[in-house]
Write a structure and sequence with these properties.
Radius of gyration: 26 Å
Number of strands: 18
Number of helices: 14
Strand order of the largest sheet: 2-1-3-4-9-8-7-5-6
Distance between the termini: 41 Å
Shape: globular
Structural class: alpha/beta
Low-confidence stretches: 332-346
């Protein structure tokens, strides 16, 4: 088992970001609910306490037994985490005179201390709190201040326990990654966790977990399921069978192209053309949630039918990744949203679940794929929704609408590649709108469909901004779609960010 840092989540919106920063420093870490600190098996090197939407003095505030690790391991409290340590140690936390939010700079920084080593006065940090620590116990020492926050950072004497009232994990904290790196040094971390070490450990674990059992994996053509398949193939070879279902809502020629890629990778893949089945079941359905459920159930049914043809299958493998697990379960244990990879299939099929990537972020999955020697066009594929074009056709779905959208989408995606813009965009696609507009083509009036181009930039899809694509690029794409796609006479560009909008329209 690799050495690790435990991050206890008290409900902060940036807890995942803390984990990403630690992982970027080649150190394995896990996010756990604030009240689920595990028994230390010798692999835990340190603990980080996240921020929280609560005040430490709220009756509903999340609290945990700090004695489980304080004084036993290095501990770093961030914002609420720092206030919780101070308050439970006998200090005082009170409402700030005004909410402290945004950039600040150190006016005092004891850079001789290990946590702030190499960080100087004037370094920019990011504040985001409505409370502040007004008094610390006698055995606490202030190691950093800003003009508005006297106790911006502290250290507990005779312990490797630290607290900071700013957020080192966010981009605006200039030396934030440096601070986290210092903390990992205090923890004695080797910083040897990498894609190569992950592959070696995971393949060995899969061999031990699965033995000679047969495994079935549902492929989507996306990065996560593809990397999972290659990892499993490396571990168990012919005992893995992959099933790729074409629900008729994939991108243009995607079914054939992806099957060709999988053949090159040496995977045992069954391709199932189920277009007509899905088109029939979706006929006349306009409600977005109903469409999603029909597509989801249809996929399960087709997958189930194919999987049952394989003798003695005991395991279902999925391309679940870490954000899927975190987003699907809140820190209180209640479901926030059901993710397409978390739940559903195993219960119906009575198979044991295998998720080799469930502890990785998307960028880490891509690094693993690169290390495995997979083609870059597979690794760099943009995210694509499970229901496919079904959530990009607003209103009811017909085969003709799918044809129109596939043709328009193909022009947009090809152009992004040709203009060397594809890799700078997190996700892109075309939406077929449920409106028709008047146009003039040649000497005739037309009354045809309008489409919207959607392209966003993001790091992990939790937030996203519309991509500022060049005007001449948009003009060329618009012109090509209108001239080459029968049934479209108007093209628009979506300039909404997330939040308040979402990446997909449905």
């Amino acid at each position: 088992m690799p050495e690790k840092i435990i991050i206890l989540d008290f409900g902060s919106q940036t807890t995942q970001l803390i984990a990403r920063r630690v992982r970027e420093l080649n150190t394995y870490c896990e996010i756990l609910p604030y009240n689920k600190y595990p028994q230390n098996d010798g692999t835990i090197k340190g603990v980080i306490l996240s921020g929280s939407p609560f005040s430490v003095y709220d009756k509903a505030a999340f609290k945990t037994d700090l004695s489980q690790f304080i004084g036993k391991l290095p501990v770093l409290g961030i914002c609420y985490g720092a206030q919780l340590i101070a308050e439970q140690s006998g200090g005082s936390v009170e409402p700030a005179g005004s909410r402290e939010y945004g950039r600040a700079n150190f006016t005092m920084c004891n850079n001789e201390k290990e946590l702030l080593k190499g960080i100087s006065v004037g370094s920019q940090v990011w504040m985001s709190h409505g409370d502040t620590i007004t008094r610390i116990p006698d055995n606490f020492e202030i190691i950093a201040s800003t003009s508005d926050v006297k106790i911006a950072a502290y250290k507990v004497s005779e312990e490797n326990t630290y607290g900071v009232q700013f957020h080192p994990e966010v981009f605006h904290s200039a030396d934030g990654t440096h601070l986290l790196d210092n903390f990992l040094n205090i923890c004695g971390c080797k910083k040897d966790w990498s894609a190569a070490s992950f592959i070696e450990t995971t393949v060995e674990n899969l061999k031990n977990q699965l033995g000679d059992d047969k495994v079935v994996l549902g492929l989507s053509g996306g990065v996560d399921s593809s990397v999972s398949a290659v990892l499993l193939n490396k571990a168990i070879g012919k005992n893995l069978t992959c099933i790729f279902v074409d629900h008729g809502l994939l991108r243009k020629n995607e079914f054939e192209n992806v099957l060709r890629d999988y053949e090159i990778l040496g995977l045992n893949v069954i391709g199932v053309n189920a277009k007509n089945r899905f088109y029939s079941e979706l006929s006349g359905i306009k409600d977005p949630e109903k469409k999603r459920k029909i597509i989801g159930k249809g996929f399960i049914d087709v997958f189930d039918e194919e999987a049952r043809k394989i003798q003695n299958v005991k395991w279902l493998a999925q391309g679940t990744i870490y954000p899927d697990c975190i987003e699907s379960l809140s820190i209180t244990g209640t479901t926030i949203k059901s993710h397409h990879n978390v739940g559903g299939l195993p219960e119906k099929m009575n198979l044991k679940l295998c998720e080799p990537l469930r502890l990785l972020f998307k960028d880490e999955v891509r690094k693993v794929g690169t290390q495995l020697g997979m083609p870059q066009h597979l690794i760099k594929r943009q995210p694509f929704p499970g229901p496919g074009l079904g959530v990009r056709i607003l209103g009811d779905i017909t085969e003709e609408k799918v044809r129109i959208l596939q043709d328009a989408d193909d022009i947009f995606i090809r152009a992004l590649h040709e203009w060397d813009l594809y890799d700078s965009v997190w996700q892109a696609g075309v939406i077929l709108l449920p409106v028709q507009s008047v146009g003039v083509m040649g000497d005739e009036r037309t009354y045809e469909n309008a489409v919207a181009l959607r392209a966003v930039t993001s790091i992990d899809a939790m937030t996203a901004d519309w991509a500022h694509l060049p005007y001449d690029f948009l003009a060329k794409v618009s012109n090509d779609i209108i001239n080459k796609v029968r049934g479209v006479n108007r093209v628009t560009y979506d300039i909404s960010s997330k939040p308040p909008a979402t990446i997909e329209w449905e």
